[in-house]
């Protein structure tokens, strides 16, 4: 297991590589090139410069999160051929700089959704929150405005301005597409790309849909254990794998996260773990919270133990953190709460390992 933190380059992060390096037990970062428009090839020379910057800080760059998938691939349009070729070229380039794992998602139009990015918690910290009625009352463009207004000037991954322009049109497009066709488009992408992931030795790790239920009549696919089984069966290569995000899947109270980890990590199909906690107010409303079991609904001991028991060798990162101690940062991605989370998870990992001796 390798503990990493997400980090955004080009000055688009309040957290420095030096701060990450000083976080005990953290050996690398999951990073990205947000300046490259979705669908374009990631240039090798830009990747080499990024790798040098990260390595010079004493950290590894083995995980990319994420290379976004062009909407034409998800829609199954003829233009997907070119975008798939570009994706394969990007795989080749990231392999040349030593990347081993690629986290991506296959959510249509809208990436993750929250109704508030700085919801006050009882202890005076703030966290991202989701209120289902508020989200479905907002149209997606309004939500984009809400997201942007609370982002503290940082870019929000998944809410890149270029994807917002065509949002209304894209939502309309999917109204005429069955979920089954959406699955077929996903399989088409996987069958084209996975042989190259094998060739370049990059583990593809799809991130679950967040939240794991339909919004605005858009298809949702990576939402529960049955659908994850279906996804993995679309292409049986071990390179067609998962990012298990405890918070995204855990937003649905029907999902038993330790069971999901045991099944798929046991099969060697989990390559990246996002671990965070959340606290439900009811079935579809929740606040994000500190990582500790006692702060939320998820049992972090059981989650970490499920990875440990299945001899997990992939990457783990604490997921979103709260804003605390006066920190100003991209929502979910401050330093303090994620550093606390990383060390809590490392403590559980150490204790579970030593109890087995
Ligand atoms: Mn996640």
Report on this model:
The chain has an 8-stranded parallel β-barrel, surrounded by 4 helices. The protein has a 4-stranded antiparallel sheet with strand order 5-6-11-10. The protein has one domain: Alpha-Beta Barrel (TIM Barrel). The model has no long low-confidence stretch (mean pLDDT 93). The chain has 14 helices and 12 strands. The protein has helices at 17-21, 44-56, 71-75, 80-96, 132-137, 140-149, 161-164, 167-175, 179-199, 225-234, 246-250, 257-266, 300-309, 336-355, and strands at residues 2-6, 26-31, 60-65, 101-105, 116-120, 126-130, 203-207, 240-245, 270-275, 277-282, 285-289, 315-318. It is of the alpha/beta class and 357 residues long.
Which helices and strands, and how do they pair?
Layout: E1 2-6, H1 17-21, E2 26-31, H2 44-56, E3 60-65, H3 71-75, H4 80-96, E4 101-105, E5 116-120, E6 126-130, H5 132-137, H6 140-149, H7 161-164, H8 167-175, H9 179-199, E7 203-207, H10 225-234, E8 240-245, H11 246-250, H12 257-266, E9 270-275, E10 277-282, E11 285-289, H13 300-309, E12 315-318, H14 336-355
Parallel strand pairs: 1-2, 1-12, 2-3, 3-4, 4-7, 7-8, 8-9, 9-12
Antiparallel strand pairs: 5-6, 6-11, 10-11
This protein binds manganese (II) ion (MN).
């Amino acid at each position: 297991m390798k503990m990493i933190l997400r980090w955004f380059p080009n000055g688009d992060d309040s957290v420095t590589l030096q701060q990450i390096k000083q976080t005990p037990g953290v050996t690398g970062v999951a990073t990205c090139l947000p300046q490259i428009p979705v669908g374009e090839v990631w240039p090798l020379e830009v990747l080499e410069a990024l790798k040098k910057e990260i390595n010079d800080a004493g950290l590894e760059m083995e995980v990319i999160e994420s290379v976004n998938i062009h909407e034409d691939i998800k829609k199954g349009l003829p233009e997907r051929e070119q975008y798939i070729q570009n994706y394969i070229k990007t795989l080749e380039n990231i392999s040349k700089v030593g990347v081993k794992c690629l986290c991506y998602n296959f959510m249509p139009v809208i990436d993750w959704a929250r109704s508030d990015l700085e919801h006050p918690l009882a202890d005076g910290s703030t966290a991202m929150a989701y209120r289902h009625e508020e989200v479905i009352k907002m149209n997606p463009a309004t939500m984009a405005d809400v997201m942007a207004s609370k982002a503290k000037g940082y870019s929000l991954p998944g809410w890149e301005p270029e994807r917002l322009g065509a949002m209304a049109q894209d939502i309309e497009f999917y109204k005429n597409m069955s979920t089954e066709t959406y699955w077929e488009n996903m399989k088409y992408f996987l069958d084209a790309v996975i042989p190259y992931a094998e060739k370049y030795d990059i583990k593809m790790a799809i991130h679950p849909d967040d939240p794991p239920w339909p919004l605005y009549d858009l298809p949702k696919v990576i939402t529960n254990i049955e659908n994850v089984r279906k996804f993995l069966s679309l292409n049986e290569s071990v390179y067609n794998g998962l990012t298990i995000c405890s918070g995204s899947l855990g937003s649905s109270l029907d999902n038993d996260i330790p069971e999901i980890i045991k099944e798929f990590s046991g099969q060697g199909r989990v390559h990246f773990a996002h671990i965070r906690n959340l606290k439900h107010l009811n079935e579809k409303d929740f606040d994000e919270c500190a990582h500790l079991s006692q702060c939320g609904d998820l049992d972090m001991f059981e989650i970490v133990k499920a990875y440990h028991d299945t001899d997990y060798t992939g990457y783990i990162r604490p997921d979103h953190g709260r804003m605390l101690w006066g920190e100003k940062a991209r929502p979910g991605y401050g330093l303090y709460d994620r550093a606390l989370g990383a060390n809590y998870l490392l403590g559980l990992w150490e204790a579970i390992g030593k109890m087995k001796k």
